[in-house]
Design goal:
The protein is α/β, with parallel strands linked by helices. It has one domain: P-loop containing nucleotide triphosphate hydrolases (Rossmann fold, 3-Layer(aba) Sandwich). 28% of the residues lie in helices and 26% in strands. Strands 1, 2, 3, 4, 5, 6, 7 and 8 form an eight-stranded mixed sheet that branches. Helix 3 links the parallel strand 4 and strand 5. The protein is globular, with a radius of gyration of 17 Å. The C terminus is likely disordered.
């Protein structure tokens, strides 16, 4: 029996680190050097198949521009997972990760959120690298206690991109399985397995909470496209 998990994923980071490239490379299998800056946020829905699970990820690609910072809060609130992206050739982009993290701490419960740190532009290493892998690994370990929550990728070369979303889905499923079926968590994250009365299964779709359901949809990995506030 295939089980379905729906989750909201916020993708955050400084402007030009490759957030949009990460999403478009995975969803549309394309890459361009002329990606326009995101205004506000855009989202796509991507499916990831894992054994007996089908994960539907709402990927919110938010603007990294400072003038849209306050608006960005609307898009990461209620997120079940956050991907913090930096450019391995930019010290400033890595420092900005900590700025994002401090903001997240003020607005969401990080203990209840899957966090991944992703270093992009691996194709420019080692000549232009400024952020050593060991430094980034030690940083994420101090934040989450898990040094494996770091991935280095190249959106240009399509190197490691699929691993980001597979890792996201794996961690979300692992988190879901650790919760008892039909037990509502504090943030409304767990909806249940489709049993129980209709009222108890209601959810605020604006938050895209993790939803656990039963089904037999197979393991199709198609994607859908939508956008908001371009």
């Amino acid at each position: 029996m295939t089980r379905t998990l729906d989750a909201k994923v916020a993708i955050l980071g400084r402007q030009a680190v490759g957030k949009t490239s990460l999403v478009t490379r995975y969803v549309h299998h394309t890459f361009t050097d002329r990606t326009s800056s995101t205004i506000g946020a855009s989202f796509v829905t991507a499916k990831v198949a894992l054994d007996n699970w089908e994960c539907r990820l709402q990927l919110w690609d938010s603007s990294g521009q400072e003038r849209f910072r306050a608006m960005t809060q609307m898009y990461y609130r209620g997120a079940n997972a956050v991907v913090l992206v930096y450019d391995i050739t930019s010290e400033d982009s890595f420092k900005d990760v900590d700025t994002w993290l401090q903001e997240l701490k003020r607005n969401i419960d990080l203990d209840d959120t899957v966090i991944l740190l992703v270093g992009n532009k691996l194709d420019l290493s080692p000549e232009s690298r400024q952020i050593d892998y060991s430094r980034a690994r030690d940083y994420i370990k101090t934040i989450s206690g898990d040094e494996t929550a770091l991935l280095e990728i190249s959106c240009r070369d399509d190197d490691g991109v699929i691993d980001v979303f597979y890792e996201l889905a794996t961690r979300l499923v692992r988190k879901q399985e650790s919760l008892a079926d039909n037990q509502q968590n504090e943030n409304g994250g767990l909806i249940g397995d489709g049993s129980g009365d209709r009222t108890s299964r209601r959810q605020d779709r604006s938050l895209f909470p993790i939803r656990l359901s039963s089904g037999g949809a197979g393991t199709e990995t198609t994607t859908g496209l939508g956008n908001c506030c371009w």
